[in-house]
């Protein structure tokens, strides 16, 4: 008998299931494993082992702290299965701490810490776990160093060393999200479902019980001649009974994307940004004219169509150094700094000889390569970040290697961002401001502002606030305050 046990133990030892070290027995796990957090009502959840992270974390939402008999608790919801937001579990846990945690992107976030038993293979022990609504890793749970203590070794090459699970079986343990009775049928009209912003909007809508559908702009087509306006989708499906549309149109799709949005408007769907306001925001010159109409401060800007006016234009904006912008440029790509009048003249004439539309702008040197992005929803700034250009550049765009950081904006900056959004007629906008010696000035207004930087830095659920803006509008209609 003893002999048999010894053989069994040796087999386990050699197969790597148990390793004996100076600190006792360790279990070997792969980079991903099924775990159980039974006390929370989570019998099976896939976790990623990450010895680089100190604390373990759970991707939770609807996080609400409360007190009971003098003890602190937190209630939260979780989608325990990866890539599945139809399955939901409501949990509650005892709060043992509130801690600042640095996420994988380096941002610091305040999180609730709960203590609960973790089951991995045959073993169960207490761990501390933080709750976050960040879902950047895709895994619903991350197993950090502290939880592993001296019990676990990670084999980074392996997966599911403690066994695989049948997800259909697991699903039965959890309840399904029932779309709320007042759940809306919402389309996300965009191009790439894998983009962070689009994933977050889909997730935020589903979490709130709405019927979310991703529609690729390229695959939609319209029937304009029929007595009833129609939009069909690849394969012929007729997209009807749509409550709301969230247009997230990439610049290269502006023309067609706005046409589709208009068609949905004609069908009676509520579009979070109106097609007209999107078209306005995409025309840099037109939006600057609208801002100037509303007396909003911006850098002195000049525009002309004929090459003979080049010198006059340079003079108009106060001479070099100055900034030349391609009207069709995005993400800072068509923005050039000319240090001298001679350089400015050559660049302007070169662009003109290519028949490119440009505008010429006073260079705000004192901004030192920094600008501010304010995210506006429904006439409120819901978050703002500062962006700083990479060394040697003056353009703060994140796509060009700029770095984002938290910023506290002034009352004047808040006002200017809100007024500018109104002037263009947008409900949701990213307003770029630059701090000049004469106060804040608007650089541009974006009708499909990215969510990643702003959510990461501010820790705010901006996607959720976009969905709530739609919900509020439907509530106003129901209560007769809006048509
Ligand atoms: P894009 O739409 O391509 O992002 P922007 O007009 O926003 O173009 O300019 C890109 C970046 O260049 C801005 O974020 C800002 O950092 C910098 N920039 C733009 N205009 C000026 C200016 N007039 N003075 C100083 N910096 C500027």
Give a nutshell description of this structure.
The protein contains 12 helices and 29 strands.
Structural description of this entry:
By secondary structure, the protein is α+β, with helices and mostly antiparallel strands. The protein has 4 domains: 2-177, Beta Barrel (Cathepsin D, subunit A, domain 1), CATH 2.40.70.10; 185-280, Rossmann fold (3-Layer(aba) Sandwich); 300-363, Dna Ligase, domain 1; 367-475, ATP-grasp fold, B domain (D-amino Acid Aminotransferase, Chain A, domain 1, 2-Layer Sandwich). Helices cover 26% and strands 36% of the residues. It has 12 helices and 29 strands. The strands form 6 sheets. Strands 3, 4, 5, 6, 7, 8, 9, 10, 11 and 13 form a 10-stranded mixed sheet that branches. It has a 5-stranded antiparallel sheet with strand order 27-26-25-28-29, with helices on both faces. The longest helix has 17 residues, at 462-478. The protein is globular and about 80 Å long. It starts with a helix and ends in a 5-residue tail after the last helix. The structure holds adenosine-5'-diphosphate.
Structural class label: alpha+beta
Largest sheet: 10 strands, mixed
The CATH superfamily of the largest domain is known as Acid Proteases
Question: Architecture of the largest domain, according to CATH?
Answer: Beta Barrel
End-to-end span in angstroms?
81 Å
Query: How many domains would you count in the coordinates?
Result: 4
Shape: globular
Query: What's the alpha carbon Rg, rounded to whole Å?
Result: 27 Å
- According to CATH, the fold-level topology of the largest domain is Cathepsin D, subunit A, domain 1
Name of the CATH first level of the largest domain? Mainly Beta
Which residues form runs of ≥5 with pLDDT under 50? Answer: 1-23
H/I helix tally? 12
Our estimate of the beta-strand percent is 35-45%
Total E-strand runs: 29
In percent, how helical is the residue content? 25-40%
Distinct bound molecules: adenosine-5'-diphosphate
- State mean pLDDT (0 to 100 scale): 86
């Amino acid at each position: 008998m003893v002999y048999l046990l010894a053989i069994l133990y040796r087999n386990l030892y050699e197969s790597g299931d148990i390793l004996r070290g100076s600190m006792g027995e360790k279990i070997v796990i792969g980079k991903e494993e099924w775990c159980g957090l039974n006390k929370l009502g989570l019998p099976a959840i896939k976790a990623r082992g990450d010895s680089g992270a100190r604390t373990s974390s759970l991707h939770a939402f609807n996080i609400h702290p409360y007190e009971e008999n003098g003890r602190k608790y937190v209630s939260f919801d979780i989608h325990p299965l990866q890539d599945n937001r139809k399955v939901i579990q409501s949990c509650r846990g005892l709060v043992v701490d509130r801690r600042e945690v640095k996420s994988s992107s380096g941002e610091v976030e305040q999180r609730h810490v709960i203590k609960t038993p973790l089951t991995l293979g045959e073993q169960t022990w207490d761990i501390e776990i933080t709750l976050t609504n960040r879902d950047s890793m895709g895994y619903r749970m991350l197993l950090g160093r502290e939880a592993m203590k001296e019990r676990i070794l990670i084999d980074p090459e392996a997966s599911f060393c403690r066994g695989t699970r049948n997800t259909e079986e697991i699903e039965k343990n959890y309840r399904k999200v029932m779309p709320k009775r007042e759940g809306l049928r919402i389309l996300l009209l965009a191009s790439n479902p894998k983009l962070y912003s689009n994933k977050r909007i889909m997730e935020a809508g589903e979490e709130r019980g709405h019927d979310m559908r991703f529609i690729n702009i390229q695959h939609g087509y319209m029937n304009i001649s029929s007595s009833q306006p129609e939009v069909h989708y690849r394969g012929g499906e007729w997209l009807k009974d749509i409550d709301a549309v969230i247009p997230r149109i990439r610049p290269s799709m502006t023309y067609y994307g706005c046409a589709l949005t208009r068609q949905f408007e004609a069908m009676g769907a509520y579009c979070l940004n109106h097609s007209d306001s999107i078209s306005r925001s995409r025309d840099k010159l037109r939006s600057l004219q609208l801002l100037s109409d509303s007396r909003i401060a911006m850098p002195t800007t000049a525009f002309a169509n004929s090459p003979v006016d080049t010198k006059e234009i340079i003079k108009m904006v106060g001479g070099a150094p100055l900034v030349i912008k391609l009207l069709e440029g995005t993400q800072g790509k068509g923005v050039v700094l000319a240090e001298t009048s001679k350089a400015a003249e050559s660049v302007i004439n070169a662009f003109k000889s290519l028949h490119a539309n440009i505008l010429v702008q006073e260079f705000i040197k004192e901004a030192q390569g920094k600008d501010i992005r304010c995210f506006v929803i429904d006439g409120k700034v819901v978050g703002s970040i500062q962006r700083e250009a990479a060394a040697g550049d003056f353009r703060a765009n994140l796509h060009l290697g700029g770095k984002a950081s938290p910023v506290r904006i002034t009352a004047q900056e808040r006002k200017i961002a809100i007024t500018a959004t109104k002037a263009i007629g947008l409900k949701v906008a990213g307003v770029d401001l630059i701090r000049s010696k004469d106060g804040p000035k608007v650089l541009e207004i974006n009708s499909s502002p990215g969510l990643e930087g702003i959510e990461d830095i501010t820790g705010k659920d901006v996607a959720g606030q976009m969905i709530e803006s739609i919900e509020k509008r439907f509530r106003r209609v129901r209560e007769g305050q809006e048509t």
